[in-house]
Amino acid sequence: MRAFSIRPLAEHDLDALLGLYAQLHPTDVALPARAQVLNVWQAIRSDPKLHCLGGFVGDELAVSCLLSITPNLTRGCRPFGLIENVITRADHRRRGYGRALLLHASDIAWQHGCYKVMLQTGRKDEVTLAFYESAGFDRQTKQAFWAAAPVRAV
């Protein structure tokens, strides 16, 4: 069995990450030109408040999430964390990798002094909701609201 490890994603991990994102949003809009994708990737990787994390089984990217640390003027000026784009490759689910990654991301937030970490999911199935609860997230404490960007003519 290959070892599991977690680390920040490196420049060369982009294509593996995009492959995971294709599983996360299979009907997503097409990516822009490669140069623009690379610019966004560089912006993410160079921002100290953003932590794009990957869990690897051997050399294969199996899970990923993005942790954003947001400065804040409430709660004694303690920041908060937001986790987005949580994805586990379909063939690596139910092995504890996703939970380990979320616990790792939360630990980074705690190290940065965050007073809370949040995430949202559009999934309604009990298995997914129980998965997030197993990683320390509470679905009962707060209510999330979501607004989509308006559709703009191209």
From TrEMBL:
Keywords: Acyltransferase, Transferase
Domain N-acetyltransferase as annotated: residue spans: 4-154
EC number(s) recorded for this UniProt protein: 2.3.1.-
Transmembrane segments: none
Listed name of the protein: GNAT family N-acetyltransferase
Pfam families linked: Acetyltransf_1
InterPro entries (UniProt xref): Acyl_CoA_acyltransferase (IPR016181), Bact_Acetyltransf (IPR050832), GNAT_dom (IPR000182)
Top EC category: transferase
GO molecular function: acyltransferase activity
